[in-house]
Structure to design on (1366 residues):
């Protein structure tokens, strides 16, 4: 298996295969010895003689569409999202960031939770920073502000509705 | 004599009480919601009793269900932990009326200190210095606006019925006032079932320093020194320590005496905490009494050697305290980091989900209070705190070093947590020097959270770990022993090369 | 300045040193045999260096391989842990000759105290009371037989070069003497590479009490109080505690001074332990000096707050001790249980195998020093100790209660361990009252090991757990949701019934 | 699945089945509510309202021959071997304990290890308690004694040989 991995500012070609019962890893573009051990989500990766312990898991909602899969990795007390791109498939992952229509702004939930209050109505003109709705998550209420000045074009959630992270909440028509 | 305790809580604090019960030869029973059935505290208790579905309002906050669970399972006492029903005097009263011992302060004392406005009046009368604020709980936003105009902005809106930062808002101008009152009221209602709020002058450049107290039914009351809790994000404590760099032995004695004044004024019994703000001149100002065990009680346990939950149970059993004021002499330094299922790199947004793998830190000076097990689902229904990581050292420097080591050992897969934030914090010079006040974290947050992403070799190792997982989840990874021609230069993995030639140049 | 340390050991002590390195900002590198490649200390170190195949003689005891590993990996110091090469003066010398710092006593001091016969001569001269015994290491069994006739049986045969019970045999009659000498010699050869043995009069009804000492290169030497190690099976320590019920403050001071006499007489530096036998009249008799960190060092750490491994590294770096005698005042009580991969119900026979699941205990006052991870293979090649479980309490009673709680939380699947033995021991009145000497465990063993089998509801629960595992491993268990007609009365599991009607009668 | 379980002095009939996605357990002969949770080797079993945590694993070498499988279980700080007997197969487990020929005694290894020394030769007459050979395991040498007086009939292991637990070491002809 060969993938292009993007992690922070790094972009690397990684190949993984089974060889005589062991998993072998090669790192193109780096003249480095790679050794791996561990199983499942807890891995040990030795690079240039230095061992790094890593906890790795698939990012929720990363479904492999367009040949891209994302993983979150906790390593040495820091965390990074790794995007693995299948070089054999077109549609590079960067294309995933679909552009929204000119002049409209989509406000999405950054966390899962439950809508407790909708503060605006369709057609309302709002200033940047004005509260649009309130989402409760883990016992805290969070007011979701308008990222810029505009007119509320549509509201997709009602009070009491549960929302997933990334769910579309409100569409603003920017002015 | 208490023989069987119903623990009306969940997570690490339920487990903490289970352990205290075991130490005392008392049978622990854990009341649990449906989703917590397989949780560690339930498994380690003698029995679990289901009290309702996941939402706290239908289970952990359902007084009738909790009391019925205690009666049905043959308990003679109830420990409420913190949060949920722990500071609800009606619950405490209902427990006692059902013929059970409530392990906490008497309802009357809880009442006296539980309403923040009443408490301020009481403390002021008892001679404890209070922060200028509204003398009565406000029915509407107008009284708050009037107070703000009188005292000057910034002001702080607080829930009259609760603590822990819930329903608390800073207001810096009249324009912000009414939305803030609305939100605080709504949060207070959600958290404490009471939407009463009041206002105080916001003191700036101050520290949050609190005193742990415990009193028995025989007139003995002891304070166990202070906890430094200034490291807060939006009024939520993130890191606590004991002792505080800002507290001299003389100030410790004075604050301890003030805290005991508060205990006596309210007829307090059992464990409690008197919270103060400490201004730049070292003057303590009474904030509130938390009529329960605090989340951060273990830092006090680590420096005093006193088991606070054991002491709570003994006091509730009617026994006198097993230690006196002169037995308490804090030794060494303890720090607690609250590990939350929140992503510090994205504004601390909640990260519920399944913990797929877990490696808890250990070693000298390290204590982890957690109910987390690999496979657990972190639910949106409850608080985001998944673990309390504690480090003790002979001095503050040793405690910080051990905390840093433990944070780096702590591995959690499946959800993002605040571990990277704490790693960054422990490395900060301002933290090492004790240069912070209660606004420091909020002020420094953009900088504190700008370096949480792995880079360099860490990012490369992360990329490899991700590729390995992707490989194993693909068909290719499952089939073993298949030759992989044409791939080079292969490093043989799963087996280290013998030492010679294994280590690359430039290594030393 | 030490910047990188090669840890020439495995298991919990390798991890212990890794953690101390982290606390000091020193880079830890772990030398490991092939089978230990994926062990926790190797994973948590900055690097691992393979030094040979599993048998210790070809890896952990291979001096050249260890020193080469240190040089190749850019280390400037070597920590030997305990066992293996830790008390080998030739190794210490070779390390220093290679330009590396040996974290332990100088070879000369190790030599002076390492040969038990030499050490006795030295101590006797320095004024430390010694047990009657052979004045010189015996070349053959004849000298030992002559001594035994002179001093009277029972006598004790000991390895001249080592400690830890290896190569030690009690001989009660002339008939037993020669086979015992043969076995002791062979064990000594295997464990220390030296088959020299000597003999001492066996004192009976005595306790094993040892004093922890540490000395720096600047003439400072401090003792850190005693450890009570009388609970031994066939001279292998099973449980240690600090302080000892048999030691008064006055005796503590006297024994501390005797231990420091031993330190000065031998030119000792770094951490070491002076072992005494304490007779019924409270007289200490010098036994030997262990020129290394002891397995049981954490009980001293828990009551003094001193990090002994950190202190070892600081002293080896040439720094003066960071504490003085007057800073040491033991606080509370600490107990250690050695958890072994041995079956106490069958004569403690070794139980190697794979650990399929693991739940380590935690909570207030509990520390677990272990490198064990679920999935680890316990190898026959090494010592059977898989974990050290430690409990601290304000007093001995609290420490015992916490230890018992922690033992009951400790779950290991895949191998039998000594956990049931320790549970039984912690419940014994003689243990609670401190009524034991070094022969107590051996004397009481049949009784101590007669009740380790689960019975009653425990046995029923065990049977159900076994049936569940058998079911899941069968074809039937894999298929979900299949109806199972004709089986009744079924209790719906995997889901607790709601509270009403859930709890059977007679429950309260 | 229905089994007869022998654990210590207890003998019980246990039935396990899947029912609507859950594992259901019934215990015959006991009027008791059974609830189970946990996975793999770590189980929680609630009996009559009391929860028991159990660590369970198959006993090495228990191969299911004669319809018997053995498991070791650690529960409440004690340990017990559970023998599960398949009631549909003959050869009850107790038959496993094969009787040795009259007058001969088999000495087997109680632990795995390595033979370091053989102390006797075939034909030697030995007293009860006399050492036959020495096995090294986990760094300790253990002398294996003759359980009774007899003549060494055969020695099945040589110095240096590794032995499994249960391996036949020496056969004695009892006198």
């Amino acid at each position: 298996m060969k993938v292009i991995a993007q992690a922070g500012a790094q972009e690397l070609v990684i190949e993984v295969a089974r060889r005589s019962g062991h998993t072998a890893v090669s790192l193109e573009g780096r003249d480095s010895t790679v050794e791996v051990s561990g199983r499942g989500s807890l891995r040990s990766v030795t690079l240039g003689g230095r061992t790094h312990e890593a906890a790795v898991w698939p990012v929720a909602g990363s479904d492999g569409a367009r040949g891209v899969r994302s993983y979150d990795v906790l390593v040495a007390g820091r965390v990074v999202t790794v995007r693995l791109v299948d070089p054999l498939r077109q549609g590079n992952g960067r294309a995933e960031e679909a552009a929204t229509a000119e002049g409209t702004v989509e406000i999405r939930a950054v966390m899962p939770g439950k809508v407790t209050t909708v503060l605006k109505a369709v057609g309302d003109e709002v200033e940047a920073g004005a509260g649009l709705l309130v989402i409760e998550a883990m016992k805290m209420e969070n007011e979701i502000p308008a990222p810029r000045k505009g007119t509320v074009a549509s509201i997709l959630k009602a009070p009491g509705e549960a929302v997933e992270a990334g769910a579309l909440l409100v569409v603003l028509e920017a002015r | 004599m208490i023989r069987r305790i119903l623990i009306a809580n969940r997570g690490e604090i339920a487990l903490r009480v289970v352990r205290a019960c075991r130490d005392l030869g008392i049978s622990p029973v854990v009341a649990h919601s449906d989703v917590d059935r397989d949780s560690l505290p339930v498994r380690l208790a003698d029995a679990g009793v289901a009290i309702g579905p996941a939402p706290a309002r239908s289970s952990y906050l359902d007084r009738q269900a909790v009391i019925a669970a205690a009666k049905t399972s043959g308990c003679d006492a109830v420990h409420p932990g913190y949060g949920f029903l722990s500071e609800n005097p009606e619950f405490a009263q209902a427990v006692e009326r059902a013929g059970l011992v409530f392990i906490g302060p008497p309802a009357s004392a809880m009442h006296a200190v539980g309403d923040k406005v009443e408490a301020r009046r009481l403390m002021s009368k008892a001679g404890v210095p209070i922060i200028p604020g509204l003398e009565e709980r406000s029915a509407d936003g107008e009284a708050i606006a009037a107070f703000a105009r009188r005292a000057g902005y910034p002001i702080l809106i607080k829930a009259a019925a609760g603590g822990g930062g819930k329903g608390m808002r800073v207001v810096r101008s009249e324009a912000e006032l009414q939305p803030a009152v609305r939100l605080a009221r709504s949060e207070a209602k959600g958290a404490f079932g009471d939407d009463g709020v009041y206002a105080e002058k916001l003191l700036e450049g101050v520290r949050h320093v609190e005193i742990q107290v415990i009193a028995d039914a025989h007139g003995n009351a002891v304070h166990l020194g202070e906890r430094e809790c200034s490291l807060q994000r939006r009024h939520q404590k993130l890191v606590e320590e004991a002792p505080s760099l800002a507290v001299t032995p003389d100030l410790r004695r004075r604050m301890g005496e003030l805290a005991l004044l508060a205990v006596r004024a309210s007829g307090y019994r059992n464990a409690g905490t008197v919270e103060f703000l400490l201004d730049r001149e070292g003057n303590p100002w009474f904030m509130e009494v938390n009529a329960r065990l605090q989340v951060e009680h273990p830092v006090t346990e680590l420096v005093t050697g006193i088991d606070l939950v054991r002491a709570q149970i003994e006091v509730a059993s009617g026994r006198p305290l097993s230690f006196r004021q002169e037995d308490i002499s804090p030794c060494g330094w303890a720090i607690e980091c609250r590990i939350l299922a929140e992503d510090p790199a994205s504004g601390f947004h909640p990260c519920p989900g399944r913990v797929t793998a877990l490696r808890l830190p250990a070693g000298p000076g390290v204590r982890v209070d957690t109910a987390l097990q690999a496979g657990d689902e972190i639910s949106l229904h409850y608080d985001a705190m998944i673990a309390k990581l504690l480090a003790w050292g002979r001095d503050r420097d040793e405690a910080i070093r051990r905390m840093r080591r433990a944070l780096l050992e702590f591995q959690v897969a499946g959800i993002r947590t605040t571990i990277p934030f704490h790693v960054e914090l422990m490395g900060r010079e301002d933290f090492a020097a004790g240069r912070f006040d209660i606004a420091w974290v909020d002020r420094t947050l953009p900088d504190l959270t700008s370096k949480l992403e792995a880079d360099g070799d860490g990012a490369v190792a992360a990329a490899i770990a991700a590729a390995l997982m992707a490989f194993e989840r693909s068909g290719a990874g499952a089939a073993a022993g298949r030759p992989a021609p044409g791939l080079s230069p292969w490093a043989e993995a799963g087996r280290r090369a013998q030492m010679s030639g294994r280590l690359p140049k430039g290594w030393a």
